[in-house]
Amino acid sequence: MKIVIIGVSAAGISAAKAIKASEPDTEVVIISKEDSVHSRCMLHKFLGHERDAKGINFIADDFFASKGITWLSNTTVISLDTQKKTVKTHDNQDISYDKLLIATGAAYFIPPIPGLRESKNVYGFRDLKDAQLLDSECDTAKNAVVIGAGLVGMDAAVAMLTRGLKVTVIEMTAAVMSLQLDQKSAQTYQQLFEEQGAKFILNDKVVSVDVDEVGRGKTIHLASGKAVPADVIVIAAGVRPAFNFTEGSGIATNHAILVGDDLKTNIDDIYAAGDVTGMAGIWPNAMKQGRIAAINMLGEKLLYEDRFALKNTVNFYGLTTLSLGNINPEPEESCEILMREDRHNYQKVVIKNGVVQGVIIQGNIAGTGFWQYLIKNKIDISGKNKDVFSLGYADFYDLDQVTGDYRYAV
Amino acid sequence: MKRIIIDREKCDGCLNCNIACISAHEAGSNFYTVNLQSPAAETRNFIKFDAHKGYLPIFCRHCDEPECVLSCMSGALEKDPLTGHVQYDESKCAACYMCVMNCPYGVLKPDKQTRTKVIKCDFCDDKPDGPSCVKACPKKAIAVKEVSL
Questions:
Q1: Which ipTM score applies to this complex?
Q2: Partner of B58 for a Cys bridge, out of A210, A361, B46, B131, CB 3.0 to 4.6 A?
Q3: For A154-208, how does the pLDDT look when each residue is reduced to its tens digit (9 = 90+)?
Q4: Min Cα–Cα distance to chain B from A287, Å
Protein backbone atom coordinates (compact mmCIF):
# COMPACT_ATOMS: atom_id res chain seq x y z
CA MET A 1 0.00 0.00 0.00
CA LYS A 2 1.11 3.52 -0.78
CA ILE A 3 0.13 6.40 1.47
CA VAL A 4 0.73 9.98 0.37
CA ILE A 5 0.81 12.70 3.03
CA ILE A 6 0.64 16.37 2.07
CA GLY A 7 2.22 18.50 4.78
CA VAL A 8 5.26 18.15 6.95
CA SER A 9 4.24 19.68 10.27
CA ALA A 10 2.65 18.18 13.40
CA ALA A 11 -0.18 16.18 11.79
CA GLY A 12 1.81 14.98 8.75
CA ILE A 13 4.87 13.90 10.69
CA SER A 14 2.81 12.30 13.46
CA ALA A 15 0.90 10.31 10.82
CA ALA A 16 4.07 9.16 9.05
CA LYS A 17 5.52 8.05 12.37
CA ALA A 18 2.40 6.10 13.31
CA ILE A 19 2.26 4.35 9.91
CA LYS A 20 5.89 3.30 10.04
CA ALA A 21 5.60 2.20 13.67
CA SER A 22 2.74 -0.18 13.01
CA GLU A 23 3.30 -1.25 9.38
CA PRO A 24 6.87 -0.49 8.35
CA ASP A 25 6.39 -2.00 4.87
CA THR A 26 3.80 0.59 3.86
CA GLU A 27 5.18 2.97 1.23
CA VAL A 28 4.98 6.54 2.55
CA VAL A 29 5.51 9.65 0.43
CA ILE A 30 5.40 13.07 2.08
CA ILE A 31 4.98 16.15 -0.07
CA SER A 32 5.64 19.62 1.33
CA LYS A 33 6.13 23.09 -0.05
CA GLU A 34 8.62 23.71 2.77
CA ASP A 35 12.22 22.67 2.32
CA SER A 36 12.75 22.04 6.03
CA VAL A 37 10.84 20.41 8.83
CA HIS A 38 10.36 22.86 11.64
CA SER A 39 8.12 23.58 14.57
CA ARG A 40 6.25 26.82 14.04
CA CYS A 41 5.93 27.14 17.81
CA MET A 42 9.68 27.83 17.86
CA LEU A 43 9.88 30.44 15.09
CA HIS A 44 10.46 33.16 17.70
CA LYS A 45 13.58 31.30 18.83
CA PHE A 46 14.86 31.47 15.25
CA LEU A 47 13.98 35.12 14.76
CA GLY A 48 15.46 35.99 18.17
CA HIS A 49 18.72 34.26 17.11
CA GLU A 50 18.45 31.78 19.98
CA ARG A 51 18.41 28.87 17.52
CA ASP A 52 19.22 28.27 13.87
CA ALA A 53 16.94 26.51 11.37
CA LYS A 54 18.26 23.12 12.45
CA GLY A 55 17.56 24.02 16.07
CA ILE A 56 13.84 24.38 15.43
CA ASN A 57 13.55 21.04 13.65
CA PHE A 58 11.35 18.74 15.74
CA ILE A 59 12.38 15.41 14.23
CA ALA A 60 15.66 13.51 14.15
CA ASP A 61 18.09 14.31 11.31
CA ASP A 62 17.71 10.83 9.86
CA PHE A 63 13.92 10.65 10.31
CA PHE A 64 13.05 10.07 6.63
CA ALA A 65 16.03 7.86 5.79
CA SER A 66 15.80 5.67 8.88
CA LYS A 67 12.08 5.06 8.39
CA GLY A 68 12.29 4.64 4.63
CA ILE A 69 10.00 7.58 3.85
CA THR A 70 10.21 9.49 0.58
CA TRP A 71 10.09 13.24 1.14
CA LEU A 72 9.38 15.56 -1.77
CA SER A 73 10.32 18.98 -0.39
CA ASN A 74 9.87 22.30 -2.19
CA THR A 75 6.90 20.70 -3.87
CA THR A 76 3.43 22.23 -3.94
CA VAL A 77 0.35 20.17 -4.67
CA ILE A 78 -1.86 22.08 -7.09
CA SER A 79 -4.72 19.68 -7.66
CA LEU A 80 -5.92 16.15 -7.14
CA ASP A 81 -7.84 13.60 -9.14
CA THR A 82 -9.96 11.43 -6.88
CA GLN A 83 -10.93 9.08 -9.73
CA LYS A 84 -7.41 8.24 -10.84
CA LYS A 85 -6.19 8.66 -7.25
CA THR A 86 -3.33 10.98 -8.09
CA VAL A 87 -2.11 14.36 -6.90
CA LYS A 88 -0.57 16.87 -9.30
CA THR A 89 2.39 18.98 -8.21
CA HIS A 90 3.55 22.43 -9.36
CA ASP A 91 6.32 20.78 -11.40
CA ASN A 92 3.79 18.61 -13.21
CA GLN A 93 4.38 15.29 -11.47
CA ASP A 94 1.39 13.01 -11.04
CA ILE A 95 1.83 11.07 -7.82
CA SER A 96 -0.45 8.12 -7.23
CA TYR A 97 -1.81 7.06 -3.86
CA ASP A 98 -3.87 4.31 -2.32
CA LYS A 99 -4.68 6.51 0.66
CA LEU A 100 -4.14 10.24 0.94
CA LEU A 101 -3.74 12.39 4.04
CA ILE A 102 -4.23 16.13 3.70
CA ALA A 103 -2.27 17.85 6.46
CA THR A 104 -1.57 21.17 4.80
CA GLY A 105 -2.26 23.24 7.89
CA ALA A 106 -3.33 26.84 7.66
CA ALA A 107 -2.03 30.05 6.15
CA TYR A 108 -1.97 33.52 7.61
CA PHE A 109 -4.40 36.10 6.43
CA ILE A 110 -3.77 39.77 5.63
CA PRO A 111 -6.93 41.80 6.26
CA PRO A 112 -8.07 43.96 3.35
CA ILE A 113 -6.86 47.26 4.80
CA PRO A 114 -5.83 49.95 2.29
CA GLY A 115 -2.06 49.85 1.81
CA LEU A 116 -1.49 46.77 4.00
CA ARG A 117 -1.54 43.98 1.39
CA GLU A 118 0.38 46.17 -1.06
CA SER A 119 3.23 46.86 1.37
CA LYS A 120 6.36 44.86 0.58
CA ASN A 121 7.51 44.89 4.20
CA VAL A 122 4.47 43.06 5.58
CA TYR A 123 5.10 39.51 6.80
CA GLY A 124 3.17 36.75 8.44
CA PHE A 125 4.82 34.65 11.13
CA ARG A 126 3.80 31.15 10.23
CA ASP A 127 6.63 29.32 8.47
CA LEU A 128 10.39 29.35 8.56
CA LYS A 129 10.34 31.26 5.25
CA ASP A 130 8.39 34.09 6.95
CA ALA A 131 10.87 34.11 9.82
CA GLN A 132 13.82 34.16 7.41
CA LEU A 133 12.43 37.14 5.52
CA LEU A 134 11.72 38.92 8.81
CA ASP A 135 15.18 38.03 10.00
CA SER A 136 16.89 40.00 7.24
CA GLU A 137 14.49 42.93 7.72
CA CYS A 138 15.43 43.00 11.42
CA ASP A 139 19.08 43.56 10.47
CA THR A 140 18.28 47.08 9.30
CA ALA A 141 14.82 47.96 10.66
CA LYS A 142 14.40 50.13 13.75
CA ASN A 143 10.64 50.30 14.21
CA ALA A 144 8.59 47.13 14.12
CA VAL A 145 4.82 47.01 14.26
CA VAL A 146 2.95 43.83 15.16
CA ILE A 147 -0.73 43.74 14.25
CA GLY A 148 -2.50 41.37 16.63
CA ALA A 149 -1.54 40.56 20.23
CA GLY A 150 -2.45 36.88 20.18
CA LEU A 151 0.16 34.22 20.94
CA VAL A 152 1.72 34.50 17.46
CA GLY A 153 1.94 38.28 17.63
CA MET A 154 3.51 38.11 21.10
CA ASP A 155 6.00 35.49 19.84
CA ALA A 156 7.02 37.83 17.02
CA ALA A 157 7.23 40.76 19.44
CA VAL A 158 9.43 38.92 21.93
CA ALA A 159 11.88 37.94 19.18
CA MET A 160 12.11 41.44 17.72
CA LEU A 161 12.59 42.94 21.20
CA THR A 162 15.50 40.53 21.63
CA ARG A 163 16.89 41.84 18.36
CA GLY A 164 16.79 45.37 19.73
CA LEU A 165 13.95 46.77 17.65
CA LYS A 166 11.40 49.26 18.90
CA VAL A 167 8.25 47.16 18.90
CA THR A 168 4.68 48.47 18.88
CA VAL A 169 1.86 45.96 19.19
CA ILE A 170 -1.59 46.96 17.94
CA GLU A 171 -4.58 44.99 19.19
CA MET A 172 -8.32 45.30 18.55
CA THR A 173 -9.42 43.89 21.91
CA ALA A 174 -8.81 45.37 25.35
CA ALA A 175 -5.99 43.01 26.35
CA VAL A 176 -3.13 40.90 25.02
CA MET A 177 -3.71 37.18 24.37
CA SER A 178 -7.42 37.65 24.96
CA LEU A 179 -8.23 34.08 23.90
CA GLN A 180 -5.96 32.61 26.57
CA LEU A 181 -6.01 35.14 29.40
CA ASP A 182 -8.27 37.38 31.42
CA GLN A 183 -7.64 41.08 31.99
CA LYS A 184 -5.52 40.54 35.08
CA SER A 185 -3.23 37.78 33.80
CA ALA A 186 -2.85 39.66 30.51
CA GLN A 187 -1.82 42.82 32.32
CA THR A 188 1.07 40.99 33.96
CA TYR A 189 2.46 39.90 30.59
CA GLN A 190 1.91 43.34 29.10
CA GLN A 191 4.02 44.84 31.89
CA LEU A 192 6.80 42.31 31.33
CA PHE A 193 6.88 43.22 27.63
CA GLU A 194 6.78 46.93 28.43
CA GLU A 195 9.77 46.53 30.75
CA GLN A 196 11.61 45.20 27.69
CA GLY A 197 10.63 48.28 25.69
CA ALA A 198 7.45 47.16 23.92
CA LYS A 199 4.59 49.59 23.38
CA PHE A 200 0.98 48.41 23.26
CA ILE A 201 -1.94 50.14 21.61
CA LEU A 202 -5.10 48.27 22.65
CA ASN A 203 -8.74 48.76 21.67
CA ASP A 204 -7.63 50.17 18.35
CA LYS A 205 -7.69 49.17 14.69
CA VAL A 206 -5.50 49.70 11.67
CA VAL A 207 -7.43 51.70 9.07
CA SER A 208 -4.74 52.37 6.47
CA VAL A 209 -1.05 52.14 5.72
CA ASP A 210 0.96 54.78 3.85
CA VAL A 211 3.13 53.12 1.23
CA ASP A 212 6.33 54.91 0.11
CA GLU A 213 7.73 55.20 -3.43
CA VAL A 214 9.48 51.80 -3.24
CA GLY A 215 6.34 50.04 -2.07
CA ARG A 216 7.08 49.76 1.63
CA GLY A 217 4.51 50.53 4.32
CA LYS A 218 5.88 53.41 6.36
CA THR A 219 3.12 54.83 8.53
CA ILE A 220 0.24 52.91 10.06
CA HIS A 221 -2.92 54.89 10.71
CA LEU A 222 -5.28 53.78 13.44
CA ALA A 223 -8.99 54.32 14.02
CA SER A 224 -8.15 56.51 17.02
CA GLY A 225 -6.26 58.89 14.73
CA LYS A 226 -2.86 57.74 15.98
CA ALA A 227 -0.06 57.17 13.46
CA VAL A 228 2.69 54.64 14.09
CA PRO A 229 5.97 54.60 12.11
CA ALA A 230 7.03 51.19 10.74
CA ASP A 231 10.10 49.79 9.01
CA VAL A 232 8.75 46.27 9.22
CA ILE A 233 5.18 45.05 9.81
CA VAL A 234 4.15 41.65 11.17
CA ILE A 235 0.58 40.59 10.63
CA ALA A 236 -0.72 38.19 13.27
CA ALA A 237 -4.45 38.49 12.78
CA GLY A 238 -5.28 34.83 12.50
CA VAL A 239 -4.97 31.98 10.05
CA ARG A 240 -7.25 30.12 7.63
CA PRO A 241 -7.13 26.42 6.73
CA ALA A 242 -5.13 25.97 3.50
CA PHE A 243 -6.80 23.71 0.94
CA ASN A 244 -6.98 25.62 -2.38
CA PHE A 245 -5.77 22.60 -4.31
CA THR A 246 -8.88 20.59 -3.42
CA GLU A 247 -11.09 22.86 -5.53
CA GLY A 248 -13.10 20.82 -8.02
CA SER A 249 -12.04 17.53 -6.42
CA GLY A 250 -15.38 16.91 -4.76
CA ILE A 251 -13.93 16.99 -1.25
CA ALA A 252 -16.46 18.63 1.03
CA THR A 253 -15.28 21.83 2.68
CA ASN A 254 -16.71 24.64 4.73
CA HIS A 255 -13.87 27.07 5.47
CA ALA A 256 -11.98 23.88 6.36
CA ILE A 257 -11.84 20.32 5.11
CA LEU A 258 -14.76 18.45 6.63
CA VAL A 259 -14.06 15.10 8.23
CA GLY A 260 -15.99 12.55 10.25
CA ASP A 261 -14.98 11.22 13.66
CA ASP A 262 -12.69 8.82 11.82
CA LEU A 263 -10.99 11.83 10.16
CA LYS A 264 -12.02 10.62 6.71
CA THR A 265 -13.36 13.17 4.26
CA ASN A 266 -16.49 12.52 2.18
CA ILE A 267 -14.21 10.80 -0.37
CA ASP A 268 -13.10 7.24 0.39
CA ASP A 269 -9.37 6.88 0.96
CA ILE A 270 -8.85 10.60 1.60
CA TYR A 271 -8.29 11.75 5.17
CA ALA A 272 -7.41 15.10 6.73
CA ALA A 273 -5.74 16.07 10.00
CA GLY A 274 -4.41 19.13 11.79
CA ASP A 275 -5.19 22.80 11.26
CA VAL A 276 -6.67 22.16 7.80
CA THR A 277 -9.68 20.52 9.46
CA GLY A 278 -10.39 23.67 11.47
CA MET A 279 -11.10 21.53 14.54
CA ALA A 280 -8.24 22.70 16.73
CA GLY A 281 -5.35 25.04 16.09
CA ILE A 282 -3.07 23.50 18.66
CA TRP A 283 -0.10 21.17 18.35
CA PRO A 284 -1.14 18.29 20.66
CA ASN A 285 -4.48 17.90 18.88
CA ALA A 286 -2.86 18.01 15.43
CA MET A 287 -0.46 15.27 16.53
CA LYS A 288 -3.32 13.14 17.83
CA GLN A 289 -5.36 13.67 14.67
CA GLY A 290 -2.38 12.71 12.51
CA ARG A 291 -1.92 9.53 14.48
CA ILE A 292 -5.61 8.55 14.38
CA ALA A 293 -5.93 9.29 10.64
CA ALA A 294 -2.81 7.20 10.00
CA ILE A 295 -4.08 4.20 11.91
CA ASN A 296 -7.47 4.46 10.17
CA MET A 297 -5.74 4.57 6.77
CA LEU A 298 -4.19 1.26 7.74
CA GLY A 299 -7.68 -0.17 8.17
CA GLU A 300 -8.52 0.38 11.82
CA LYS A 301 -11.56 2.28 13.03
CA LEU A 302 -10.32 4.72 15.64
CA LEU A 303 -12.39 7.76 16.50
CA TYR A 304 -11.14 11.27 17.23
CA GLU A 305 -12.95 11.88 20.49
CA ASP A 306 -10.50 13.87 22.59
CA ARG A 307 -11.61 17.09 20.94
CA PHE A 308 -11.03 19.53 23.77
CA ALA A 309 -9.04 22.37 22.22
CA LEU A 310 -9.47 25.37 24.52
CA LYS A 311 -6.09 24.83 26.06
CA ASN A 312 -2.74 26.50 25.99
CA THR A 313 0.34 27.36 27.92
CA VAL A 314 2.24 30.64 27.78
CA ASN A 315 5.86 31.19 28.78
CA PHE A 316 7.33 34.65 28.27
CA TYR A 317 10.23 36.03 30.30
CA GLY A 318 10.00 33.09 32.69
CA LEU A 319 6.37 33.73 33.61
CA THR A 320 4.37 30.59 32.89
CA THR A 321 0.60 30.32 32.53
CA LEU A 322 -1.80 27.46 31.95
CA SER A 323 -5.13 28.37 30.39
CA LEU A 324 -8.00 25.92 29.95
CA GLY A 325 -11.64 26.12 28.96
CA ASN A 326 -13.99 29.01 29.54
CA ILE A 327 -11.93 31.58 31.41
CA ASN A 328 -13.96 34.72 30.73
CA PRO A 329 -17.58 33.64 31.29
CA GLU A 330 -20.39 36.07 30.53
CA PRO A 331 -22.51 37.15 33.53
CA GLU A 332 -25.56 35.34 32.10
CA GLU A 333 -23.70 32.05 32.27
CA SER A 334 -23.96 32.40 36.10
CA CYS A 335 -20.65 30.79 36.83
CA GLU A 336 -18.91 30.96 40.18
CA ILE A 337 -15.47 32.54 39.88
CA LEU A 338 -12.82 31.78 42.50
CA MET A 339 -9.51 33.62 42.58
CA ARG A 340 -6.35 33.43 44.60
CA GLU A 341 -3.16 35.38 44.25
CA ASP A 342 0.14 36.20 45.86
CA ARG A 343 3.27 37.99 44.72
CA HIS A 344 4.21 35.28 42.20
CA ASN A 345 0.93 33.61 41.36
CA TYR A 346 -2.54 34.32 40.07
CA GLN A 347 -5.09 31.54 39.92
CA LYS A 348 -8.65 31.62 38.70
CA VAL A 349 -11.14 28.76 38.63
CA VAL A 350 -14.52 29.06 36.90
CA ILE A 351 -17.13 26.62 38.21
CA LYS A 352 -20.75 25.96 37.36
CA ASN A 353 -22.87 23.46 39.30
CA GLY A 354 -19.79 21.80 40.73
CA VAL A 355 -18.14 21.31 37.33
CA VAL A 356 -14.98 23.24 36.48
CA GLN A 357 -15.46 25.23 33.27
CA GLY A 358 -12.08 26.87 33.03
CA VAL A 359 -8.86 27.75 34.84
CA ILE A 360 -6.02 30.21 34.59
CA ILE A 361 -2.95 29.23 36.58
CA GLN A 362 -0.28 31.90 36.28
CA GLY A 363 3.06 31.48 38.01
CA ASN A 364 3.73 28.01 39.36
CA ILE A 365 2.11 25.50 36.99
CA ALA A 366 3.80 22.38 38.40
CA GLY A 367 1.53 19.34 38.30
CA THR A 368 -1.45 21.18 36.80
CA GLY A 369 -2.10 18.63 34.05
CA PHE A 370 -5.07 17.14 35.94
CA TRP A 371 -7.20 20.26 35.35
CA GLN A 372 -7.60 19.44 31.67
CA TYR A 373 -8.97 16.01 32.57
CA LEU A 374 -11.48 17.51 35.02
CA ILE A 375 -12.68 20.12 32.54
CA LYS A 376 -12.94 18.03 29.40
CA ASN A 377 -14.62 15.15 31.21
CA LYS A 378 -16.94 17.50 33.12
CA ILE A 379 -16.05 15.93 36.46
CA ASP A 380 -18.25 17.11 39.36
CA ILE A 381 -15.94 18.19 42.17
CA SER A 382 -18.60 19.46 44.55
CA GLY A 383 -18.27 16.33 46.70
CA LYS A 384 -14.56 16.93 47.29
CA ASN A 385 -15.12 19.15 50.32
CA LYS A 386 -11.73 20.71 49.78
CA ASP A 387 -10.26 24.05 48.83
CA VAL A 388 -10.41 24.01 45.04
CA PHE A 389 -6.91 25.49 44.73
CA SER A 390 -5.38 22.58 46.63
CA LEU A 391 -6.84 19.94 44.31
CA GLY A 392 -4.45 17.66 42.46
CA TYR A 393 -4.42 14.29 40.75
CA ALA A 394 -4.06 12.72 44.23
CA ASP A 395 -7.69 13.67 44.92
CA PHE A 396 -8.77 11.35 42.09
CA TYR A 397 -6.08 8.72 42.65
CA ASP A 398 -6.77 5.20 41.44
CA LEU A 399 -4.37 2.50 40.42
CA ASP A 400 -4.48 -0.65 38.30
CA GLN A 401 -2.47 -3.04 40.45
CA VAL A 402 -1.43 -5.26 37.55
CA THR A 403 -0.36 -2.81 34.85
CA GLY A 404 0.42 0.05 37.20
CA ASP A 405 -1.72 2.40 35.10
CA TYR A 406 -3.21 5.37 36.87
CA ARG A 407 -6.94 5.94 36.52
CA TYR A 408 -9.35 8.58 37.70
CA ALA A 409 -11.58 7.70 40.65
CA VAL A 410 -14.64 9.79 39.85
CA MET B 1 8.20 -2.62 29.27
CA LYS B 2 9.68 -2.06 32.71
CA ARG B 3 7.55 0.11 34.97
CA ILE B 4 7.63 1.17 38.60
CA ILE B 5 4.74 -0.72 40.17
CA ILE B 6 3.23 0.85 43.26
CA ASP B 7 1.90 -0.94 46.33
CA ARG B 8 0.19 2.02 47.90
CA GLU B 9 -0.66 0.26 51.18
CA LYS B 10 3.01 -0.23 51.97
CA CYS B 11 4.01 3.42 51.57
CA ASP B 12 4.48 5.20 54.87
CA GLY B 13 5.46 8.55 53.42
CA CYS B 14 9.14 8.61 54.44
CA LEU B 15 10.07 10.46 51.22
CA ASN B 16 13.30 8.52 50.76
CA CYS B 17 12.21 8.20 47.12
CA ASN B 18 12.21 12.01 46.79
CA ILE B 19 15.70 12.31 48.23
CA ALA B 20 17.03 9.47 46.08
CA CYS B 21 15.58 11.13 42.99
CA ILE B 22 17.12 14.51 43.80
CA SER B 23 20.46 12.87 44.51
CA ALA B 24 20.35 10.81 41.31
CA HIS B 25 20.11 14.06 39.36
CA GLU B 26 22.76 15.95 41.34
CA ALA B 27 26.04 14.76 39.89
CA GLY B 28 28.46 13.24 42.39
CA SER B 29 26.06 13.33 45.33
CA ASN B 30 24.75 10.49 47.46
CA PHE B 31 22.05 10.08 50.09
CA TYR B 32 24.23 11.75 52.73
CA THR B 33 25.79 14.56 50.69
CA VAL B 34 22.85 15.59 48.49
CA ASN B 35 22.10 19.30 48.79
CA LEU B 36 18.35 19.44 49.37
CA GLN B 37 18.47 23.20 49.79
CA SER B 38 19.92 23.83 46.35
CA PRO B 39 17.49 25.69 44.07
CA ALA B 40 18.19 22.94 41.55
CA ALA B 41 16.99 20.21 43.95
CA GLU B 42 13.84 18.85 42.35
CA THR B 43 12.16 15.51 42.81
CA ARG B 44 10.54 13.75 39.88
CA ASN B 45 8.25 11.65 42.08
CA PHE B 46 5.74 12.76 44.67
CA ILE B 47 4.04 11.34 47.75
CA LYS B 48 0.70 12.95 48.53
CA PHE B 49 -1.32 12.37 51.68
CA ASP B 50 -5.05 11.92 51.81
CA ALA B 51 -6.88 11.76 55.15
CA HIS B 52 -9.00 8.82 53.97
CA LYS B 53 -6.72 6.94 51.61
CA GLY B 54 -3.34 7.49 53.25
CA TYR B 55 -0.16 8.00 51.23
CA LEU B 56 -0.48 8.23 47.46
CA PRO B 57 2.73 7.74 45.48
CA ILE B 58 2.74 9.57 42.14
CA PHE B 59 5.40 8.34 39.73
CA CYS B 60 5.70 8.87 35.97
CA ARG B 61 3.99 5.96 34.18
CA HIS B 62 5.97 6.27 30.94
CA CYS B 63 2.51 5.81 29.44
CA ASP B 64 1.71 3.47 26.59
CA GLU B 65 0.34 6.43 24.66
CA PRO B 66 2.09 9.32 26.34
CA GLU B 67 0.15 12.57 26.20
CA CYS B 68 3.35 14.48 26.96
CA VAL B 69 5.04 13.16 23.81
CA LEU B 70 1.96 13.95 21.70
CA SER B 71 2.03 17.53 22.99
CA CYS B 72 5.75 18.09 22.46
CA MET B 73 6.37 20.56 19.63
CA SER B 74 10.16 20.50 19.83
CA GLY B 75 10.86 16.76 19.66
CA ALA B 76 12.40 16.87 23.15
CA LEU B 77 10.09 14.18 24.51
CA GLU B 78 10.21 10.83 22.73
CA LYS B 79 9.13 7.35 23.71
CA ASP B 80 12.10 5.03 23.31
CA PRO B 81 10.89 2.16 21.09
CA LEU B 82 13.17 -0.33 22.85
CA THR B 83 12.77 0.47 26.56
CA GLY B 84 9.30 2.03 26.25
CA HIS B 85 10.45 4.87 28.49
CA VAL B 86 9.68 8.47 27.67
CA GLN B 87 12.98 10.28 27.46
CA TYR B 88 13.63 14.00 27.53
CA ASP B 89 16.29 15.85 25.56
CA GLU B 90 16.82 19.12 27.37
CA SER B 91 18.80 20.62 24.48
CA LYS B 92 15.78 20.35 22.18
CA CYS B 93 13.18 21.59 24.68
CA ALA B 94 11.76 25.06 24.08
CA ALA B 95 9.98 25.23 27.46
CA CYS B 96 6.49 25.72 26.01
CA TYR B 97 5.11 23.47 28.75
CA MET B 98 2.31 21.94 26.73
CA CYS B 99 3.53 18.64 28.24
CA VAL B 100 2.76 19.98 31.73
CA MET B 101 -0.71 20.90 30.49
CA ASN B 102 -1.25 17.51 28.86
CA CYS B 103 -0.05 15.06 31.55
CA PRO B 104 -3.35 13.78 33.02
CA TYR B 105 -1.64 12.79 36.28
CA GLY B 106 0.10 16.08 36.92
CA VAL B 107 3.54 14.48 37.01
CA LEU B 108 5.39 17.00 34.86
CA LYS B 109 6.55 20.42 36.04
CA PRO B 110 8.73 23.29 34.86
CA ASP B 111 12.05 23.64 36.66
CA LYS B 112 11.68 26.06 39.57
CA GLN B 113 14.89 27.96 38.99
CA THR B 114 14.82 29.04 35.34
CA ARG B 115 11.58 27.80 33.77
CA THR B 116 13.55 26.76 30.73
CA LYS B 117 13.20 23.00 31.07
CA VAL B 118 10.93 20.22 32.25
CA ILE B 119 11.50 18.06 35.30
CA LYS B 120 10.61 14.51 34.34
CA CYS B 121 11.42 10.95 35.39
CA ASP B 122 14.10 9.35 33.18
CA PHE B 123 13.73 5.93 34.86
CA CYS B 124 17.42 6.36 35.79
CA ASP B 125 18.07 4.71 32.42
CA ASP B 126 21.70 5.80 32.66
CA LYS B 127 22.19 3.89 35.91
CA PRO B 128 23.06 0.18 35.83
CA ASP B 129 20.81 -0.85 38.76
CA GLY B 130 17.72 1.01 37.63
CA PRO B 131 15.55 3.65 39.32
CA SER B 132 17.16 5.20 42.40
CA CYS B 133 13.79 5.70 44.08
CA VAL B 134 13.06 1.98 44.01
CA LYS B 135 16.43 1.15 45.57
CA ALA B 136 15.86 3.74 48.29
CA CYS B 137 12.38 2.58 49.35
CA PRO B 138 12.67 0.85 52.74
CA LYS B 139 9.11 -0.49 52.58
CA LYS B 140 9.33 -1.99 49.07
CA ALA B 141 6.23 0.01 48.20
CA ILE B 142 7.67 0.53 44.73
CA ALA B 143 9.25 -2.13 42.55
CA VAL B 144 10.37 -2.40 38.95
CA LYS B 145 8.29 -4.96 37.09
CA GLU B 146 7.90 -6.00 33.50
CA VAL B 147 4.39 -5.14 32.31
CA SER B 148 2.69 -5.75 28.99
CA LEU B 149 0.41 -2.93 27.98
A1: 0.96
A2: B46
A3: 999 999 999 999 999 999 999 999 999 999 999 999 999 999 999 999 999 999 9
A4: 6
* Secondary structure in 3-state letters for B92-113: CCCCCCHHHHHCCCCCCEECCC
Q: Is the dihedral of CA A285, A291, A296, A297 positive or negative?
A: positive
A2-37+53-107+240-297 fold: FAD/NAD(P)-binding domain (3.50.50)
Q: Tell me how far apart the alpha carbons of residues A189 and A177 are, in angstroms, rounded to a whole number.
A: 9
Numbers of helices and strands, H then E, in chain A: 8, 25
Q: Which amino acid is at A148?
A: G
Q: How do residues A335-348 score in pLDDT, each as one tens digit?
A: 999 999 999 999 99
Which runs of E-coded beta strand occur in A65-156? Answer: 70-72, 77-81, 86-89, 94-96, 99-102, 106-108, 122-123, 143-147
B107 neighbourhood in chain A, CB within 8 Å = 367, 369, 393
Whether pLDDT at A328 is above 90: yes
At residue A385, does pLDDT exceed 90?
Answer: no
Q: What is the pLDDT of residue A280?
A: 87
Nearest to A12 by CA among A63, A86, A56: A63
With bands split at pLDDT 50, 70 and 90, how would you rate the model's confidence at B149? confident
- B:36-55 residues touching chain A, CB 8 A cutoff: 46, 48, 50, 53
Q: Determine the distance from the C-alpha atom of residue A15 to the mean position of all C-alpha atoms in its chain, rounded to a whole number.
A: 18
Q: Which of A37, A43, A9, A8 is nearest to A234 (CA)?
A: A43
- Mean pLDDT score of chain A: 97
The DSSP letter of residue A56 is G
Closest partner residue to B100 (CB to CB) among A45, A365, A392 is A365
User: How far apart, in Å, do the first and last CA atoms of chain B sit?
Assistant: 8
Q: Shortest CB distance from B105 goes to which of A60, A319, A369?
A: A369
B146 touches chain A (CB under 8 A): no
Instruction: Give residue limits of the domains in chain A.
Output: 2-37+53-107+240-297, 122-237, 318-408
Alpha-carbon distance B68 to nearest alpha carbon in chain A (angstroms): 9
Q: Which residues of A touch B149 (CB under 8 A)?
A: 403, 405
Over residues A48-91, the pLDDT tens digits come to 999 999 999 999 999 999 999 999 999 999 999 999 999 999 99
Residue A237: per-residue pLDDT: 94
In CATH terms, the fold of domain A122-237 is FAD/NAD(P)-binding domain (3.50.50)
Q: Given CB atoms, is B94 within the 8 Å cutoff of chain A?
A: yes
On the 0-12 / 13-18 / 19+ scale of CB atoms within 10 A, A88 is middle
Domains plus CATH for chain B?
1-59+122-149 (3.30.70.20), 62-120 (3.30.70.20)
